C-alpha cells in the first residue's frame, strides 16, 4: 500500500481527464470505427467459445503502433483473477429510448504477500449488437452504446479508496461490491441502430450482450489487464406507431394473368393488394384480392403463404479492388435460403343453399366462369418474425405469396407482395423510467428501518370508508344540515387530516385499552337517541360499520345515529330491562314516525310512502356529534 500511495503522490501533479485516459497504454475491448477484421477478432476474444469459456492467457493487442509486449490480458482468463466482475440486469428485453436497470458486482480479491497492489479504472457498461454467420465464425458489430460506471451508478465512488492518478486509476477497496445502475439507450447519437433479434437457422443469428468491463493495473509490475463479463439480452428499435402503421400513399399491389389447363382460351386475372407495408408480428394481415375469371373453370382455392428469405453475405477479400485500402461491402459471396413460415388456405364452400337448411358450408363461394369477385382474407403472422435490413453479413426479408387455383390438376396463378414485419415492443415499449434514490437505497439494502415512534399502533388508524376515503368529523353547527340535506364534504388536505386524526391518539389508545380489556365489541342494536351517554359514544366509535352500498358517498356517524332510531319515536316506551328514558317531543309537522339519514340504506322509503311528505328537520341541541368529535 505504501508503494501504491507513493505512485499516486508522484503523479499528483498531473491533471487527469478522460481524454488523457483514452491515450493510456491500456488496450480496449472494442475499438471504435475498427476495420471488419479487427472487429471480428475483438468479438472472438470477448465472447470466448460456444460455452463462453475464454482461452487461457487470452490477451488483446493494443491500439496503435504499440508492440505485442504491451498487450493487455483478460483478467477472467487467469487462473486466479484479482478482480472479478458481473452484471445482472433486471430483464433481458430492452427497447431503444428506454433504460437498462440492473446491478453490477465487483469483487476485489485480497492480495497475498507475493502479489502487488492493484489499481482499477472507472468501469464501463456496454450494450453490443452483432450479427454472425457460418456457425458464428464470421461476426460483425452493428450497434454499440456505452456509459461509464460513475455516470450510470451514483454509488460507484463507494468502490474507490483514493483519488485518480494521471491515467485515471484508483485504489480499490477489497471485498465484494454490489452497485445498482441505470443506463439510457439513446434514440440518436449512438453507434448504429438496434434491429431486434432472430435466429432463423443454425449458425445464423442476431445477438446482443450487456457487458461490464474494468481496467486493472498492478502497481509494482505495471501489468495491465481487463476484467469483463457479459450476459445475453435483446434490444429492439423504437418506432413511431402513427407513422409505421399509417396507410401507404399507394397500395402495395401485384397482378398476374394466366390461362388455366383445359380452361379454354380465356385467362384468369389475379390482383392482390396491401394497404400498408409494415405489419406487427403476431397480428392478422389483411389481403384484398380481386379475381377476374374468363376461363371455363371455377376458382375454388386461395392460399396465402408467408415466405422468409435469409441472405448471408460471406466476405471474400479476393474480390476487393486492388490498391484500395477500404474494404468493399459488395466483395462477397451470397447465399439465400427461403422458407415458408406461415400459411392460410381458403376453400370454396357451398354456393347454393340446400333445401331444408338455414345455412351452408363456408363463407366464400368461389369464382365461377365469367364472374368477377373482390374479397379479403387474413393470415396470422408468426410472433417471432422480424425484418432485418442488411448491415454487413445478414439480411432477412419477407414476401407474401397469393395463389389461386381451380383444382388439384389445374395450374396455379400467384403474385408476390413485399411485407415488412416489426415487433410490438417497438411501438409499445414497457415502462423503464429510472428508479429514485430511495429505491436505489432499498435495492442496496441500505434503507433505514423506521423508528419505534413511527410505527403505527394497531388501533391508532384513521377510519376509512369503503372506497378508501377518510371519514370527516361532524361539527355541531352544521350537523343537521349535513344529515338532512346530504351536504357531504370530503377531506382533501392530508396535512390537516393527519393533525386532526392523530392529535388525540394517546387518549384514544388509553380508552380503547381499558374498554377492550373488559368488554368485547357488540352490535349497537336498537339504541335510541336518548342513550347517547359515554359508553354509547365509545361503542359507536369502535363498532362503526360502513354500508358498502353507500360508501362512495362517505360514511358518517350521522348515518349510524339516525339509522338506529326506533319506529314510533313519539310513542316510544322503554321495556322493563331498559333504562328509564324521556322521549323527545316530535316536531309539529311530522307525519312519518321513522327518522333516517339520506345516505343510509334505511333512508329509502317504501313504495306506499312515496306520496307522503318528507319529515321536517328536528330542532333542539344535541351533544352526540360533539361527544363523538371529542372521543
TrEMBL record:
GO terms for cellular component: cytosol; plasma membrane. GO terms for biological process: ubiquitin-dependent endocytosis. Residues 264-424 form the Arrestin C-terminal-like domain. This is Arrestin C-terminal-like domain-containing protein. One of its GO terms (molecular function) is ubiquitin protein ligase binding. It comes from the Eukaryota. InterPro entries: Arrestin-like_C, Arrestin_C-like, Arrestin_domain-protein, Ig_E-set. Residues 489-519, 572-631 are annotated as: Disordered. Residues 499-510, 596-608 have a biased composition (Low complexity).
Amino acid at each position: 500500500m505504501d508503494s501504491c500511495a507513493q505512485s499516486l503522490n508522484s503523479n499528483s501533479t498531473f491533471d487527469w481527464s478522460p481524454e488523457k485516459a483514452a491515450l493510456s497504454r491500456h488496450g480496449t475491448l472494442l475499438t471504435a470505427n475498427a476495420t471488419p477484421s479487427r472487429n471480428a477478432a475483438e468479438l472472438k476474444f470477448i465472447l470466448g467459445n460456444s460455452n463462453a469459456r475464454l482461452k487461457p492467457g487470452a490477451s488483446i493487442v493494443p491500439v496503435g503502433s504499440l508492440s505485442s509486449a504491451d498487450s493487455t490480458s483478460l483478467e477472467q482468463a487467469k487462473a486466479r483473477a484479482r478482480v472479478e466482475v458481473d452484471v445482472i440486469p433486471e430483464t433481458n428485453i430492452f427497447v431503444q429510448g428506454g433504460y437498462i436497470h440492473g446491478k453490477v458486482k465487483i469483487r476485489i480479491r485480497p492480495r497475498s504477500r507475493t502479489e502487488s497492489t492493484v489499481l482499477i479504472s472507472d468501469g464501463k457498461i456496454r450494450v453490443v449488437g452483432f450479427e454472425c454467420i457460418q456457425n458464428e465464425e464470421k461476426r460483425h458489430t452493428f450497434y454499440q452504446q456505452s456509459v461509464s460506471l460513475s455516470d450510470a451508478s451514483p454509488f460507484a465512488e463507494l468502490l474507490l479508496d483514493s483519488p485518480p492518478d494521471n491515467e485515471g486509476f484508483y485504489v480499490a477497496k477489497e471485498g465484494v461490491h454490489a452497485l445498482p445502475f441505470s443506463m439510457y439507450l439513446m434514440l440518436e447519437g449512438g453507434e448504429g441502430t438496434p434491429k431486434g433479434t432472430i435466429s432463423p437457422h443454425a449458425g445464423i443469428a442476431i445477438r446482443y450482450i450487456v457487458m461490464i468491463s474494468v481496467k486493472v493495473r498492478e502497481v509494482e509490475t505495471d501489468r495491465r489487464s481487463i476484467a469483463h463479463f457479459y450476459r445475453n439480452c435483446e434490444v429492439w428499435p423504437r418506432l413511431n406507431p402513427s407513422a409505421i402503421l399509417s396507410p401507404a400513399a399507394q397500395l402495395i399491389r401485384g397482378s398476374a394473368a394466366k390461362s388455366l389447363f383445359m380452361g379454354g382460351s380465356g385467362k384468369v386475372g389475379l390482383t392482390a393488394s396491401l394497404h400498408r407495408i409494415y405489419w406487427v408480428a403476431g397480428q392478422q394481415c389483411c389481403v384484398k384480392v380481386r379475381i377476374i375469371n374468363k376461363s371455363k373453370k371455377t376458382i375454388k382455392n386461395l392460399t396465402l403463404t408467408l415466405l422468409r428469405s435469409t441472405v448471408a453475405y460471406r466476405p471474400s477479400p479476393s474480390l476487393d479492388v486492388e490498391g484500395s485500402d477500404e474494404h468493399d461491402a459488395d466483395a462477397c459471396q451470397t447465399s439465400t435460403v427461403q422458407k415458408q413460415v406461415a400459411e392460410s388456405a381458403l376453400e370454396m364452400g357451398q354456393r347454393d343453399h340446400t333445401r331444408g337448411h338455414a345455412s351452408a358450408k363456408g363463407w366464400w363461394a368461389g369464382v365461377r366462369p365469367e364472374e368477377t369477385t373482390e374479397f379479403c382474407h387474413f393470415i396470422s403472422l408468426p410472433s417471432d418474425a422480424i425484418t432485418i435490413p442488411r448491415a454487413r453479413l445478414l439480411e432477412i426479408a419477407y414476401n407474401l405469396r397469393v395463389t389461386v387455383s381451380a383444382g388439384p390438376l389445374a395450374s396455379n396463378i400467384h403474385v408476390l407482395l413485399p411485407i415488412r414485419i416489426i415487433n410490438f415492443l417497438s411501438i409499445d415499449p414497457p415502462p423503464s423510467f429510472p428508479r429514485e434514490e430511495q429505491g436505489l437505497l432499498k435495492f442496496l439494502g441500505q434503507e433505514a428501518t423506521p423508528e419505534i415512534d413511527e410505527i403505527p399502533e394497531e388501533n391508532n388508524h384513521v377510519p376509512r370508508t369503503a372506497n378508501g376515503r377518510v371519514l370527516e368529523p361532524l361539527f355541531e353547527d352544521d350537523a343537521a344540515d349535513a344529515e338532512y340535506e346530504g351536504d357531504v364534504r370530503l377531506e382533501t388536505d392530508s396535512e390537516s387530516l393527519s393533525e386532526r386524526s392523530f392529535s388525540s391518539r394517546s387518549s384514544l389508545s388509553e380508552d380503547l385499552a381499558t374498554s377492550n380489556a373488559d368488554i368485547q365489541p357488540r352490535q349497537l342494536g336498537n339504541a335510541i337517541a336518548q342513550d347517547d351517554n359515554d359508553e354509547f359514544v365509545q361503542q359507536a366509535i369502535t363498532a362503526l360499520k360502513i354500508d358498502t352500498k353507500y360508501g362512495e358517498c362517505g360514511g358518517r356517524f350521522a348515518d349510524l345515529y339516525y339509522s338506529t332510531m326506533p319506529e314510533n319515536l313519539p310513542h316510544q316506551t322503554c321495556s322493563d330491562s331498559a333504562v328509564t328514558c324521556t322521549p323527545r317531543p316530535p316536531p309539529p309537522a311530522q307525519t312519518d314516525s321513522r327518522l333516517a339519514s339520506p345516505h343510509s340504506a334505511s333512508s329509502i322509503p317504501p313504495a306506499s310512502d312515496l306520496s307522503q311528505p318528507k319529515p321536517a328537520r328536528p330542532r333542539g341541541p344535541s351533544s352526540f356529534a360533539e361527544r363523538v368529535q371529542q372521543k
